[in-house]
Prior knowledge:
This protein is mainly alpha-helical and about 190 residues long. It has one domain (about 1-180). It has 9 helices and no strands. The protein has helices at about 1-15, 20-35, 40-45, 60-65, 65-70, 75-95, 105-115, 120-140, 150-180. Helix 2 (about 20-35) packs antiparallel against helix 9 (about 150-180) and helix 6 (about 75-95) packs antiparallel against helix 7 (about 105-115). It starts with a helix and ends in a 7-residue tail after the last helix.
Amino acid sequence: xxxxxxxxxxxxYAAADDPLTRASNRLALILASNQxxxxxxxxxxxxxxxxxxxxxxxxxxFFVATPWIARRFPRVGRLWLPAIGALNTYxxxxxxxxxxxxxxxxxxxIIIAALSCRRSERAALCYYLAGVCAAFALLHGRxxxxxxxxxxxxxxxxxxxxxxxxxxxxxxxxWMFRRARLEPDANGR
Length: 189
C-alpha cells in the first residue's frame, strides 16, 4: 500500500501538461534514482571502492529538483535537466579524469536538450549548445590530475562502463521524447 502511494506521489511530482516537460521530469527522476548505483557500478568494474565515489551524489538534488524548476520557470525548465547533466559530466571528469570516458555523457545531454526543445525555443537551445561546447573547449585536457586515480585496466573498465551507460541513456531519452512528441500538449502543439 505504501509503495503505491510513493509511486503516485512521484507521478504527481513529475506531472506536467506539456508532454515534453513531463518526459524531461520523468527522465530526471530516473537519473536521480540511478545515481546511488553509479558508485557500485564503478566499484564492480574496477574492483576498487573509494570514498571519492560519493562525490557523484553532488548533483542528485539538482536532478530531483527538475520538476520543481519546470513548474516555476517553464521557459528554462526542460533545459535544466541537460544543463545539470553537462555540469555533472564536467565535475565527474574532474573527479575521474578524461581517461574514464565520463565526458561521453555530453552526448546524451545534447540529445536531451535537442529533443526537449520546440522550434520556438531554438535560441535557448543554441545558447545551451554554445555553452556546452565552450565549456568542453575550455576544460578538456585541462582538468589536471584526477582525484580518483587508478590503473590502466581500471580506466579501460570505466571507459567501457561510461560508453555503455551514455549510449543507453541516449536511447532511453530518444524513446521517451519520441513518445512525448507524438502527444499534443495543452495548447494543441
